[in-house]
Amino acid sequence: MENLSNQNLEQDSYKTGSTKPPKKRGGLVAVLLVIVILLAGLVSILGMMNIHLFRMLQREKREPISFAPGNIETTMPAQDAAGQPKLGLTVGSVGELEQRFYELPGGALITGVDAQGCAARAGLTVGDIIVGFNNAAVPSAEELEQALQKCQSGDRVLITIYRHRTGRQFTVTVILDEKDG
Does residue 8 sit in helix, strand or coil? Predict the structure, then answer.
C-alpha cells in the first residue's frame, strides 16, 4: 500500500506527464539577483566618487574650454628694445590637468587676440592652442616665446593650431608684425 501511495504522490506532483522531476530555477534567480545588487552597489560607489561609468563608455563631444582668468598664467612680454616681432596674442601654457580632462595637446593656449595683430588677420581666435611654430613642436607658452625671439619682423612663419571646438589641427602662414597691433 505504501508503494501505491508513493506512486499517486509522484503522479499528482508531476501532472505534466513527464517522468523527469521539475527543474529548480530558484538558485539561478538568486545568483542573478546578487549580481544585479553588486553592480548597482558598484555604480553607486563610483557615482559617489564622481566617476560616471556610462559617461566614460560614451564618446561625447566635450564643451569648449572655458578657463577662469586666474587658471592660466599668461605670457608674451611687451616689445623689447631690439624690435622683436609680435603675434598680437596673449597666451598661456595648457596645464597637465586640462590636457587630461579635455583630451588636449600641450601647447600655448590663446587667451587674448589683438584685433589689429597679424594673428587675428591669420584667423587665430581665443581658445585655439598653438602646438607648432615653423614645423617645431611648441609644448608651452615659454617655448613659443623662445621660438618667436629667433624671428625678425616681416618673416613668414608657419603656426600649427589645434582648435578644440572642432577637434581639428591645421597650419596657417603668418607674416610677423614689428609690434603688437
Answer: helix
Of residues 85, 165, 157, 149, the one with CA closest to residue 122: 157
CB 114 within 8 A of CB 89: yes
Residue 139 vs residues 12, 23, 118: alpha-carbon distances, Å: 82, 66, 22
Whole-number Å distance between alpha carbons of 95 and 111: 13
Answering whether pTM is above 0.85, one says no
Give yes or no for a contact between 160 and 169, defined as CB atoms under 8 angstroms apart: yes
Residue 36 in grid coordinates: 544585479
Q: In whole angstroms, what separates CA 86 from the centre of its chain?
A: 31
Structure-block grid coordinates of residue 157? 612663419
Are the C-beta atoms of residues 89 and 121 closer than 8 Å to each other? Answer: no
Instruction: Read off the pLDDT of residues 115-165 as tens digits, 9 standing for 90 and up.
Output: 888 888 999 999 899 999 999 999 888 888 888 888 888 889 999 999 988
Contact 181, 124 (CB under 8 A): no
CA distances from 170 to 80, 124, 163 (A): 30, 11, 8
Give the count of beta carbons closer than 10 Å to the beta carbon of residue 112: 13
Look up residue 168 and give its three cell numbers: 581639428
Contact 111, 67 (CB under 8 A): yes
